[in-house]
Amino acid sequence: MQGRADGQGRVYQASRDQYIIEHHHHGDAGSHAWTSPDSIRRPAVGRAPTVLRDRTELMNHLQEAVESGTGNQVYVLHGMGGCGKTAVAYTLFQRVTAAGRRIGLWVNASDAATLRGGMLAVAADRGAQGSELLAARSGLRAPADLVWGRLDQSDVPWLLVLDNADDPAVLQDGGWLRASPRGTVLVTTRQAAARWWPYAELHHVGVLPREHAAQVLCDLAPESGTVEEAAEIADRLGRLPLALTLAGGFLAHQVIEPWTMAQYGHRLQECGHVDLIDQGAVALRREDARHLVSSTWQFSLDALAAQGLPESTALLRLLACYGSDPLPLSLLSGPQLSAVLPPARVEAALRGLLDQSLTTLVDVGLRCVQTHGVLLASVAAGSPAQQVTTVMATAARLLGAVIPAIPDVGPPDLRLRLLAPHALTLLRHATDVSVAVEALDAAVRLAIALHRTGDYLTALEVASTSAAITEPALGPDHRLVLQAHARTGRALCRLGRFEEAEALHRRVLADRERLFGPDDPDTLDSSFGLEFPLEQLGRIQEATELLKQTIGRQQRVLGNYHPLTLRSRVMLLECLPASELGAVIDGAAMPLPEECASLLGPEHSITLEAQLNYALALHTLGRFQPAEEQAHRVADEFQRRYGPDYPITLSARTLCARIQASLGNLVSAIEMMTDVSDRRERSLGAEHPYTAYSRRLVEEFRATAAAGRTPVDP
Fold it and tell me: What residues does the NB-ARC domain cover (predicted)?
């Protein structure tokens, strides 16, 4: 056999069983790929905090634990990127080492190579010999055992900080995380799952309180503005320490044209958060992706992808379509998710986000997920353009799926209120017209549902803001935009702003008649909606004539027994004078409540409203005894269904009180009406017209009782 070798090549020939082993060592020990950090005795941080704001309780606990000298302790600071975990570790490191009774060792644990290099430097610092280090670097000796052996034998106590340990597997795989009687270990990480940190004491680090967040800005840029202006900026930045630090750095380093905090806040509102915030990174001594809000989250997403959870990125992009308020978890369970990620993978994807502190679970009476606003803004800004429309459309469909198609009257619903800010955020993000239309449809239905649960203030916000957001893109004549305006008018009326409600209803009615004709269902809805503010403003005759015209058109277009026609006929009982009521009630083949019950069912909300207005009509006609029986029965039913503070329950109780007064039972009437007045003041406010009306009835009942007069209907 023949062989040739060139250069550094080798040729071997063997017979029988022979084994050849070669060891090659090129260069000196210092040239190994495991490079050591420049220093482990000084924290490697981008920008040291000027003053650590808040965190007092946590700092006191950690400092007492470290200075107690007990050892064998591992503490883990976990939280989302940019929340200030490293700042807490840095401050503790400085305080402990300044006293001189303990040395500090700082190691970057962001990846395996950096961790090993830093930990071997720790071993060298604690007395490891060059041959020991060489053997560890060459794989001939377990490096973690060498490091911890030296730490256990340290002649002075120590504090070891393992910073940026966002992938706990890096620590676990090599056995790098241990406890020692000679010192204390402090880990900073985004990984919140307790399973990664057995025997460690976990501490969550979140955003700052408002006053402390404002003070961070004032610390960095004291000449830029007032504390209150700083607090407003802090609110817009979600009080996230990284964002505050970057904003303060930007303000402090503007030379040619220094900015004020007011100017900065205005620009934040104008151009969005992420680009402007990251401009503050120019002042950093060591700029990298961890110090930018636009990219710091990518470390966590990359780690999740490496763990087989790329769906977590897709889920986070979906969450970025909504707001930073608590989002009901039920929103994330619909089949509509399949356009973005497999529904079967949602649970794992969400668990990944939770473990990496990219979102959190909160219980506000309903299980929700909550994500920081700056994180959402940066994720939305970094989403691939070709995926944005699909993700936004999915977000709109998910929202629409959890809102009733035809909302009914019901008790307050916390889930609906929680959805309100997310519906508006979705509309603000929607740039595609089809997505905007779908999102607006969901928002209008949400406003209706909120209105029918008695949450008029939130219904007003959703309806009016939805119209303002979408009108420039869809146009003032779009049917859904007009629906949003109409719902705004309904909410204004319930909030006692009758003049505004009348003006808006008239405008929408005119637009609908012009665009869709007088007999269109939307036009008829506006006609019905205008009647109520006219009635509340005391223009009873005008309201009655309008309602009669509406009923005539509804009977012609929808039919006499359509629910909307029945609803208008029920409302007419409230408007008609006594001179007409008798003929309507006595001339009917069947009482209107019974007619509604036969057509819609005895439990239908229109049936119950018919019973209430029928009792009102009987009272108007002076038929107090049957009116009392009917009113008390329906009031009890309203309270059972909707609770004692629901608006229609209070209306029914008001009628009961009026009937009691008319029957001469003034003590009962005063007691009942006082309770109604108190409840209305708590829910509507002292200045609401309904509250004022309730107080006026109480005063009239008391005056009648004091005078000993025969009661008359107030």
Answer: 58-220
Beta strands 327-328; 158-163: pairing state: unpaired
d(CA 677, CA 693): 8
Q: Is the predicted pLDDT of residue 65 greater than 90, yes or no?
A: no
3-state helix, strand, coil in the chain (%, to 5): 60, 5, 35
pLDDT beyond 50 at 287: no
Q: How far apart are CA 183 and CA 73, in angstroms?
A: 8
The SS3 of residue 180 is strand
Dig out the tokens for 57 from the structure. 């309780």
Cα–Cα distance for residue pair 92/85, rounded to 1 Å: 11
Give the pLDDT confidence of 541-562 residue by residue, as tens digits.
Answer: 999 999 999 999 999 999 999 9
Tokens of 510: 């005119």
pLDDT top residue among 709 and 43? 43
Average pLDDT in the 369-393 region?
A: 88
Q: Is there a contact between 429 and 321 (Cβ–Cβ < 8 Å)?
A: yes
Query: CB count, 10 Å around CB of 517?
Result: 10
Helix spans in 560-665 (H): 563-575, 578-586, 592-600, 605-620, 624-642, 647-662
C-alpha 550/C-alpha 519 separation (Å) is 9
578: number of Cβ within 10 Å: 10
- Answer yes or no: are the C-beta atoms of 127 and 136 closer than 8 Å: no
Please report which confidence band the pLDDT of residue 246 belongs to, taking 50, 70 and 90 as the band edges. Answer: confident
Taking the C-alpha atoms of residue 383 and residue 662, their distance in angstroms, rounded to an integer, is: 67
List C-alpha distances in Å: 224 to 177, 230, 258, 263, 691. 44, 9, 8, 10, 46
Characterize the bridge pairing of strands 183-189 and 158-163.
parallel
The one-letter amino acid at 689: P
On average, the pLDDT of the chain sits at 88
Q: What is the DSSP letter of 299?
A: H
How far apart (Å, rounded) are the C-alpha atoms in residues 6 and 318? 59
CB distance 74 to 136 below 8 Å: no
SS (H, E, C) 103-165: EEEEEECCCHHHHHHHHHHHHHHCCCCHHHHHHHHHCCCCHHHHHHHHHHCCCCCEEEEEECC
| Per-residue pLDDT at 199 exceeds 80 | yes
Element (H, E) at 474: helix 456-474
Picking from 122, 39, 50, 110, the residue whose alpha carbon sits closest to that of residue 299 is 110
Strand partners, 76: 187, 202
Distance (Å, rounded) from C-alpha 646 to C-alpha 664? 27
Q: What is the pTM of this model?
A: 0.80
pLDDT band at 290 (very low <50, low <70, confident <90, very high): low
Q: What is the pLDDT of residue 32?
A: 43
pLDDT at 662: 93
- pLDDT value at 313 more than 60: yes
For 345-391, the DSSP string reads GHHHHHHHHHHTTSSEEEESSSEEEE--HHHHHHHHHHS-HHHHHHH
Q: Parallel, antiparallel, or unpaired for β 103-108 and 73-78?
A: unpaired
